[in-house]
From TrEMBL:
Domain D-isomer specific 2-hydroxyacid dehydrogenase NAD-binding: 112-289
Keyword Oxidoreductase found: yes
Lineage, top ranks: Bacteria, Pseudomonadati, Pseudomonadota, Gammaproteobacteria, Lysobacterales
Name assigned to this protein: D-glycerate dehydrogenase
GO annotations of cellular component type: cytosol
Top-rank taxon: Bacteria
Keywords from the UniProt entry: NAD, Oxidoreductase
Length: 331
């Protein structure tokens, strides 16, 4: 009897979803979520036929050098800047992400952050928890209305579009910038208008970042871009930390050259640029935009579908549904 292929899962996750692998694979799932060193990752991957990993697991040439049996790395996330796709493709290893299933929860959370920043929700809660709400004391907590203000979206993929759809209910006109404009019908459906990046920066009252982190988008929002924004504007980041220069952002917020920000992601997270922690006009959130039970279960399910498919099982047999480097399938 030939032994089953092996799959390694880098974190504890939904057992009922992982159980779908068990008829076909020998499954090893880590009991705790933690950050593995490159050497630990290399040791974990050696001898595996498949791996299900997350953003904390940075996988490149060194980590796969001894993984001679590895055929697929399924990433639990739509963003895959933790994977060196060239190295994986070069080694004939498939890579997949979890596109689409998280669009709605990330869009909901972008709005939660936007409204939280506009209405100073977390600062007000800190004040209340600190016992400062005395019956005799008046503090206005005046926020900003969103109705009629311009929502800017930088990066108009499927999550950006889901964010734009919600703007109708809040009465906000939408401007966006993207590598290329959307087809007209999609633009109409999102009630969104394409503008160049400088115009987006100048005109947005709330600017939401939803673009992938690549060498080209690193520090897409730095000091020169922040200088173009209105002093009354607010920035929301649900994409990746490295897209914003956190030092420049902290300076702009401190000097009130920018009214506020709401950030779910940070350069070098889980460490935060210390200047951000000192500010009251920023909502800070620990990278949880996709973190609902339903969405995280769906993300795990997509990762499992990709692994099963690569090994010829399940409804997508032979065609991993969200493969990032389909050319490896031809090899
Ligand atoms: C994370 C995300 O992947 O999908 C993404 O790109 O940033 C998140 O959904 C999540 O933290 C799981 O690692």
């Amino acid at each position: 009897m030939t032994s089953k292929p092996r799959v390694w899962i880098s974190r504890p996750t939904f057992p009922e979803v992982i159980a779908r692998l068990e008829p076909h694979f020998e499954v090893t799932a880590e009991a705790e979520e933690r950050r593995f060193s490159p050497a630990e990752l290399a040791a974990k991957l050696a001898g595996q036929d498949a791996a299900v990993v997350g953003l904390k697991d940075r996988i490149g040439a060194a980590e796969i050098a001894g993984a001679h049996r590895l055929r697929i790395v399924a990433n639990l996330g739509v963003g895959y800047d933790n994977l060196d796709l060239d190295a994986l493709s070069g080694a004939g290893i498939a890579a997949s992400n979890t596109a689409d299933v998280l669009n709605e929860s990330v869009a909901d959370y972008a709005w939660a952050l936007l409204l939280g920043a506009a209405r100073r929700m977390t600062a007000a809660e800190r004040w209340l928890r600190a016992g400062q709400w005395h019956a005799t004391e008046f503090k206005a907590w005046l926020g900003a209305d969103v109705r009629g203000r311009i929502l800017g979206i930088l990066g108009m993929g499927r999550i950006g579009q889901a964010i734009a759809h919600r703007a109708v209910g809040f009465g906000m006109p939408v401007l966006y910038h993207n590598r290329s404009p959307l087809p007209e019908a999609t633009e109409r459906a999102c009630h969104a208008r394409f503008v160049d990046k400088a115009q987006l920066l100048r005109e947005s009252d709330f600017l939401v970042l939803v673009l992938p982190l690549t060498p080209q988008t690193r520090h897409a929002i730095g000091a020169p871009e922040l200088a173009l924004m209105k002093p009354t504007a607010m920035l929301v980041n649900v994409a990746r930390g490295g897209i914003v220069d956190d030092r420049a952002l902290a300076a702009a917020l401190r000097e009130r050259r920018l009214a506020g920000a709401a950030l779910d992601v940070f350069e070098g997270e889980p460490a935060l640029y210390p200047g951000l922690l000192e500010l009251d006009n920023v909502v800070l959130s620990p990278h949880i935009a996709s973190a609902t039970t339903e969405t995280r279960r769906a993300m795990t399910s997509v990762a499992v579908d990709n692994v099963l498919a690569l090994f010829g099982h399940g409804p997508h047999a032979g065609r991993p549904p969200t493969i990032l480097n389909p050319s490896v399938l031809d090899k």
